[in-house]
Amino acid sequence: MLAERNRLLSEPDTGDEFLRSCMDKQRTIRLLTTEVEQNESEPIKFSTSGAARKTVAPVMTKTNTEIPWYQPYSVVCSVAVFLIYFCVLREENNVDLEFNKTLYERIHGLEKEQLLQSYRYNKENGKSVDDIEKRLKEIEEDELKTL
């Protein structure tokens, strides 16, 4: 049985068929067995359970595909050209400049709202609020200048 299994697994077409038939047999056995544990309040020992007897089917089978000798060189060259273009040669555009902005610059009023929430939290928990008050005054002055 073991020699036949190894022979079937080494052949590409029949090896897949052998694995499928084994999986189907295991599924059928699992569906037909309806054993119920007598004492479900105790933990199940792994060494005496059915899971200890299971074996893992090979996930990947070795394929006999040959790659051309130049494939690794062409992949390395392609990646190198891509990196040189995007990291060195390419000029910044307006989309790149948008990445330099902070969230507070993008959403008007967010910094003030977060500072107010931090102020309330720090007051409730007895923490210092001096820095928060200074920044809130700066923001309010900036808002008055823009109006």
From TrEMBL:
InterPro entries reported in the protein's UniProt record: UQCC4 (IPR029160)
Transmembrane domains' residue ranges: 70-89
Protein name per the record: Uncharacterized protein
Keywords: Membrane, Transmembrane, Transmembrane helix
PANTHER family given in the database record: PROTEIN CCSMST1 (PTHR35268), UBIQUINOL-CYTOCHROME-C REDUCTASE COMPLEX ASSEMBLY FACTOR 4 (PTHR35268:SF1)
Organism of derivation: Operophtera brumata
The organism's place on the tree of life at top rank: Eukaryota
